[in-house]
Structure formats: structure tokens, C-alpha cells
């Protein structure tokens, strides 16, 4: 099993903490209805055997591949996820796919109120039973990619405010199935008005791609423009595949997206038309923009717009930064 090695001396922002082998997992507190002193002394581990026991007790026996279920075995990684998000007492946290509740447990220990969205009905029952004694958790049986999470969060925040509690913007902390990572990012990042931070455990390759702010690379797609438009992304650290059950074929990584407020978005004339233009540009990725954007306005006008913002008339989408796209869009909208 692997755990995080604390940096010493302090690492620079670009450094990535590594993982070292260890024969035993760090203990994880379980929330119980007992007194504080007895709950602190009662510890268990969210390891391979504990997860199998939890699954068997609920009639599941094996994780479902169709749901992308890979359970975290290392409580140190869960604790670091919570630390990266800066979760404090009284915070509202959205968790996507709580599974057996190992991350949920750390969030509750940190004093957060948690809204957990779980698609698998077996896991919903398991998590509700595990945390039945606390009022810090609300579990919703829904498919996150189809639910109206803004409404859920807004309603919860309004109910808290009505009782005199002042809530800050919510946070998202989650170990999500790799196959829905893009959907999750697209749904959450434009919600900077009610969410401050999104901390996700993603496939390492996707994490590296989404947090690369340099752009101007052939690998970039519209999602890279999207991520940098709505947030300041940061790759935090790598998580080896052996930390999961069942073990996936790829390593993972923790990424933090610091969501921007609306007032901090790049100054585009229309957000809708901006992303429509970006998507069109990348539909013909190897084409020059004067060809791929011809449905917006004639090629000669595209060339003139490129020249006016200081770009070559032969520019291709992968050669443009976010700022370049913003300037080009606003120039075209003036035509």
C-alpha cells in the first residue's frame, strides 16, 4: 500500500509529492453515536478487507465496472483530498459517488456538511447506514450527470441561511469515476457563484492535460479553453493505481480547480457565442481558422479579424491561447 510522503523542506508550487510503499494503511475514524471520547478511540481501516466486508454486507460482492467503481484503500489520500480543498468546520461540501463512505468519513470529521450524490442504490443504503447517527450528511440517489445540482446546492444553502447560519460558497471534493470526469468538470466549473473549489481525483493523463495552462499544443481541445475560462486549475499530486480496489489500468492524480467569480471571467461579448466559436474552431483542428470559421463570417473577414488582434492569417486553433480566442471572438462579433 502507498501513502503520501510529507515534503521537507517545503516544496515549490510546481513540485508534486510522491507516494512511498508502506505495509499498513493509516487508521480512519468512524462517525458513531457514542460519546466523543469513545468515538475517537474506536478506529477502523478502509482497506481491502473492510471494503469487501461492506460490499458483502449489502449484497453487492463486487464493484460494478459499468459504474466505474474503484474504491480508495488509502485513508491518507482521502485526508489529503480534504486538505487540498481546505475543508473547515461548517463548510458545505458536495461529494460525487461516495461509494463505501471512506472520503465521506474524513469530510464529516473535518466538520463539513456533506451532500453526497450516489447512483448505485446499494451504495446509497450502505452510506446511509454507516452515517445514520449524524445530521451532517444528506445522500441523494441520482445520476450526477443528469441531476440539477445547482438547484440542490442552492436549496440547501437557503435552508441554512434561513436558520441564521451564514454559509460560504460550497466546495466539491470527490473521487469520481474516470469515465464521467469531463461531464463533471463541464457541469461544475461554470458554478463559481456558489462553488469556490472543486477538488477531484482524476485519471493522471486527464489531470495533466486539464491543468496545462500553457495551451498552444496539438493535444489541446475545447475543454482546455473551458477549464481556463472558468477556473485556475492546479495539478496537486499523483496517486498510484495500487491505492484502489479494484486496481484500474491507469494511475490517478488530485486536481484542484479554483473557480472564478463571474466578474473574473475573460471579457467576452457573449459566453454562448464564444464557446460556439471555440467548438467550431476545433472541429477542424488541422484546418486554418479562416476555413473552419467560415460559417460565422466570410474567410476574408476572419483573416482581417486575425490580423487586427495580432495573429497570422494562417492560424490554427491549437496555436491560440485563451486570451487569443477571447480577442478573436470579440473582434468577429464587431463585424
From TrEMBL:
Domain of life the protein comes from: Eukaryota
Assigned keywords, A-Z: Methyltransferase, Transferase
EC numbers on record: 2.1.1.182
Name by which UniProt lists this protein: Ribosomal RNA adenine methyltransferase KsgA/Erm protein
Amino acid at each position: 500500500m502507498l501513502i503520501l510522503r510529507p515534503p521537507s523542506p517545503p516544496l515549490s508550487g510546481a513540485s508534486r509529492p510522491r507516494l512511498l510503499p508502506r505495509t499498513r494503511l493509516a487508521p480512519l475514524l468512524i462517525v458513531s453515536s457514542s460519546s466523543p471520547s469513545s468515538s475517537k478511540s474506536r478506529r477502523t481501516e478502509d482497506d481491502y478487507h473492510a471494503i469487501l466486508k461492506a460490499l458483502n454486507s449489502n449484497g453487492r460482492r463486487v464493484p460494478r465496472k459499468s459504474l466505474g467503481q474503484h474504491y480508495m484503500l488509502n485513508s491518507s489520500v482521502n485526508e489529503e483530498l480534504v486538505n487540498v480543498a481546505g475543508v473547515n468546520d461548517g463548510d458545505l461540501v458536495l461529494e460525487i459517488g461516495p461509494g463505501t463512505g471512506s472520503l465521506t468519513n474524513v469530510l464529516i470529521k473535518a466538520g463539513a456538511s456533506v451532500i453526497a450524490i450516489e447512483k448505485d442504490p446499494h451504495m446509497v443504503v450502505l452510506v446511509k447506514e454507516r452515517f445514520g447517527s449524524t445530521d451532517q450528511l444528506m445522500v441523494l440517489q441520482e445520476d450526477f450527470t443528469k441531476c440539477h445540482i445547482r438547484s440542490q446546492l442552492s436549496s440547501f444553502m437557503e435552508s441554512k441561511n434561513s436558520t441564521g447560519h451564514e454559509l460560504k460558497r460550497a466546495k466539491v471534493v470527490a473521487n469520481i469515476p474516470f469515465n464521467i470526469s469531463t461531464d463533471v468538470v463541464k457541469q461544475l466549473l461554470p458554478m463559481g457563484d456558489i462553488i469556490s473549489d472543486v477538488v477531484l481525483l482524476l485519471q493522471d493523463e486527464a489531470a495533466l492535460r486539464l491543468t496545462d495552462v500553457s495551451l498552444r499544443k496539438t493535444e489541446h481541445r475545447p475543454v482546455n479553453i473551458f477549464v481556463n475560462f472558468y477556473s485556475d486549475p492546479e495539478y496537486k499530486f499523483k496517486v498510484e493505481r495500487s491505492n484502489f480496489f479494484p486496481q484500474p489500468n491507469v494511475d490517478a492524480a488530485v486536481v484542484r480547480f479554483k473557480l472564478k467569480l463571474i466578474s473574473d471571467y475573460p471579457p467576452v461579448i457573449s459566453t454562448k457565442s464564444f464557446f460556439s466559436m471555440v467548438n467550431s474552431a476545433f472541429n477542424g483542428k488541422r484546418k486554418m481558422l479562416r476555413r473552419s470559421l467560415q460559417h460565422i463570417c466570410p474567410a476574408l473577414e476572419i483573416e482581417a479579424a486575425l490580423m487586427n488582434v495580432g495573429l497570422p492569417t494562417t492560424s490554427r486553433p491549437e496555436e491560440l491561447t485563451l486570451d487569443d480566442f477571447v480577442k478573436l471572438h470579440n473582434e468577429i462579433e464587431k463585424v
